[in-house]
Amino acid sequence: MDRNDVAIVILNWNGKHYLQKFLPVVIENSKKHARIIVADNGSTDDSVDYLEGYKPDIELLKLAENYGYAGGYNKALTMVEAKYYVLLNSDIEVSKNWLTPVLELMEKDEQVGACQPKIMQYSDREMFEYAGAAGGFIDFLGYPFCRGRIFNTLERDNGQFDTIDNEIFWASGACMLIRADAFHEAGGFDEKFFAHMEEIDLCWRLKLKGKKVVSCTGSRVYHVGGGTLPKTNPRKTYYNFRNSLWVLAKNLPAGKFYMLLPLRLLLDDIAAFKFLINGSFKDTIAVKKAHIVFFSKLFLMRKYSKNANESVTLVYRRSIVWDYFVRKIQSYSNLPVEKFS
To answer: How many CB atoms sit inside 10 A of residue 293's CB?
Structure first.
């Protein structure tokens, strides 16, 4: 495959320290197989000055302001011609030959629209990392989880997912390989999300267009995590709760959506109360703010649901909240496989 067919696009915002640490490794382990492009999302540190020194090993795209993850990638990818886009966080260390297995998987099956490698912790390299692990899923109420990660419980990689079917519901935006034509035909990311869960919304739309989303267990990358928003930041809580509701509003048919909404809101309120009794008052406020903004945009989001249906595969037809917090199932391998349909 010609290296011009593959474009690794790193979206940067005030991440010079991560670029200094990880960009040389990306170049060393990838430049024979792909173009490397950094799209700067209106950084106010001296990232751009630093990146200027890496020409011609990288291409630099300068965006006028911080458009968020969704808007930043949408704008950058309109300027990139390739067969495949690799969306790569700046706080990821790639391994040697990491691209070959994912590209081979995509080339083998044209029905595959998007793919992710195993995403491992940078600090403990045998543990799965929060933002994707070995591939993502959602339950019927829209709560996301992964092979190798349910809520904040992470598993060690013992090869337990290497021999099972590789199809998943969503691929992580931290490291996602996606067909360029599939990305644009699906409409790219929804910029109203700004950041978090826009990849779940995109993967749902890919599935509605007949594409598969898969995990490639033969490739590994190592993710620091929380590079832009740490997990403890209430703004992250706000985006996660608001955007997961928007995913349901956009992609479920009206009857199903309005039937599930009261239960979903109740569980969110229980989470907000749990934040409160644990002393995380700002997270409680973030959940309530997410609900307010969700309802203010609800009818706008429902306008996007004209193609919505629940026929997409690999939705977990039980409550992952109930299974995790009540039934104490904290490993993906212990979930009932027959409930994925």
So the answer is: 15
3 state SS of 28: helix
- Residue reference for tokens 């969700």: 294
For residue 229, the model assigns a pLDDT of 62
| pLDDT tens digit sequence for 225-258 | 865 666 678 999 999 999 999 999 999 999 999 9
Q: How many of the other CB atoms lie within 10 Å of CB of 317?
A: 11
Tell me which residue has tokens 């509701």: 245
On the question of a cis peptide bond just before residue 56, with omega within 30 degrees of 0, the verdict is yes
Q: Specify whether the backbone of 187 is left (phi greater than 0), alpha (psi in -120 to 50) or beta.
A: left
* pTM of the predicted model as reported, rounded to 2 decimal places: 0.95
Closest CA to 47 of 71, 26, 66: 66
- Round to whole Å and give the CA distance between 149 and 14: 28
Q: Tell which residue, 297, 296, 274, has the closest CA to residue 284.
A: 274
| DSSP secondary structure string for all residues of 157-209 | -SSTTSSS--EESB--TTEEEEEHHHHHHTTS--GGG-SSSHHHHHHHHHHHT
DSSP 139: B
Cβ–Cβ under 8 Å, residues 200 and 144: yes
In angstroms, what CA-CA distances link 150 with 115, 153, 195, 325?
A: 20, 5, 20, 10
Question: What is the rounded distance in angstroms from the CA atom of residue 174 to the CA atom of residue 121?
Answer: 12
